[in-house]
What we know:
Blueprint: E1 4-6, H1 13-20, H2 23-26, H3 39-51, E2 57-64, E3 67-76, E4 84-91, H4 100-115, E5 120-123, H5 130-138, E6 142-153, E7 156-166
Parallel strand pairs: 4-5
Antiparallel strand pairs: 1-2, 2-3, 3-4, 5-7, 6-7
Amino acid sequence: MTCLIRKWKREDAQDLQQSINDLRVLNNLTDRIPYPYHLQDAYDYIEAMLSADENEIFAFAIEYEGQVVGSISVLRQDDIYRRSAELGYYLGYSYWGKGIMSEAVKQTCQYVFEHSDIESIFAAPFDYNPASQRVLEKCGFEREGILRKNGFKNGEFHDMIMYSLIK
C-alpha cells in the first residue's frame, strides 16, 4: 500500500497547512480554500471534519510515510441526488506522480460504497488538470462529458470534465 486514508486528528494541522499552502495545488481546487492558508485555517477545517455528520461527509487525511500529505473527501448530495456524492481531493506538490492519489481514491471509494447507501460517486476536475483525470480513469471512473465553462478560476472560465463511478 502506498498510502493510508484515515480520520483527521487535531495534530495534523501543521502537515495540512504545509501541503495545501502552494499555488500549484490551490490552482486545481475551489476558491473556498484561502491563500495564504494559515495554521488556523487548518485547525478550523479539521474541527469541521471531526464534527461533521459521518453519513454526509466522508473526510480523510491522506498519510504517506507517517506524514499527512493531502486530503480526500466525499460529500453526499441531497434531495433526489441523496444517493450520489461528489469526490474532492488534493495532494501536496512534492508527492505528485507517486501513485498516492490513485491509491487514496480507490480506498476512499471502496470505504464509501461499503459503509453507506451511496450508489454513485462523481468528480469534475478542471480541463487543464489531466493528472487528476488520469487518477480517476485509473480508479475505474468513466468520463461522462464536458461541463463547458462551468468553473471560474483565476479570472477565467474553464471547462470541467465530469467523471463517475457506480457501486
